[in-house]
Amino acid sequence: MTPDPAKLEILVIDDEVQIRRLLRITLEAGGYRVREAENASLGLNEAAVQRPDAIILDLSLPDMSGLDVLRRLREWSHTPVLILSVQGDETAKIAALDAGADDYLTKPFGGGELLARVRVLLRRAQPAGEVSIATFGDVQVDFTRRTVTKAGVDVHLTLKEYALLRLLLQHRGKVVTHRQLLRDVWGPGHEDDTHYLRVHMANLRKKIEVSAEQPVFLKTESGIGYRFTDAG
Fold first, then answer.
1. What DSSP string describes 84-146?
2. Is the bond preceding residue 108 a cis peptide, omega within 30 degrees?
3. Tens-digit pLDDT profile for the chain (232 aa)?
4. In what order do the strands lie in the sheet with 147-150?
5. What is the per-residue pLDDT for 58?
6. Domains detected in the chain
7. How far apart are CA 145 and CA 65, in angstroms?
8. What's the angle, vertex CA 34, arms to CA 28 and CA 38, rounded to 5?
9. Strand partners, 141
10. How far apart are CA 144 and CA 110, in angstroms?
């Protein structure tokens, strides 16, 4: 049977055959396509090549810890990640969430809860009312898949760079203050850390502008903040 291209795709990274089988049955019954990887190396490769819509990641893998996989993913990927683990203590959950996980589910789990958590992850990836794709110049931002391309070539943004670009695009044409950007991207308590903002904005401009020194889209509002503006 030919896969339905309209179905969202979930990548399962888990070394237990029985768990992968259970996840496949549950997810396919929920209307998703499923890819599987039995170890960290294969999982990272699948995530990079196939660009799934969400990832279900086991913390205990034979070749690399799940936390290390998560940290490597978060160097370049914004894909929602649901952690699976037999470790249900608060410390383990905090470590996973701090490393970039979007949610955490303890084994054993029910199929209904798993599907509900996946639906929440996918909704968060594209908030209601947000357009799925934004284009400007030769740049395309796909909010659903959390990818950015320039002239058809993938642009690898860090988590902070992607968050900055997304926030500015959400307020297209409007000034977003330094404090708002720092609060929304770095969190409360960072409203005065403007040096973070300058460094990341400079890197973002290098990746998406034709000239970082003469930006067309990411404009500086001196002493106030930044504004995304369409060329011309």
1. EES--SHHHHHHHHHTT-SEEEESS--HHHHHHHHHHHHHHHS-TT--SEEEETTEEEETTTT
2. yes
3. 334 545 889 999 999 999 999 999 999 999 999 999 999 999 999 998 888 989 999 998 999 999 999 988 887 777 899 999 888 778 888 888 888 888 899 888 899 999 999 998 887 766 555 567 889 999 999 887 788 999 999 999 988 899 899 989 988 888 888 988 888 888 777 778 889 899 999 999 999 999 999 999 999 988 888 999 986 4
4. 133-136, 139-142, 147-150, 153-154
5. 94
6. 9-125 (3.40.50.2300), 133-228 (1.10.10.10)
7. 25
8. 130
9. 134, 148
10. 27
User: In sequence order, which residues have a C-beta less than 8 Å from that of residue 222 and are 6 or more positions away?
Assistant: none
Side-chain half-sphere exposure of 162, counting CA atoms within 13 A: 23
Between CA 107 and CA 114, with CA 108 as vertex, the angle to 5 degrees is: 80
Burial status of residue 113 (CB atoms within 10 A of its CB: 0-12, 13-18, 19 or more): exposed
Residue 177 tokens, joined:
């203050």
Number of H helices, E strands in the chain: 8, 12
Structure tokens at 169: 């695009």
Name the amino acid, one letter, at 88.
G
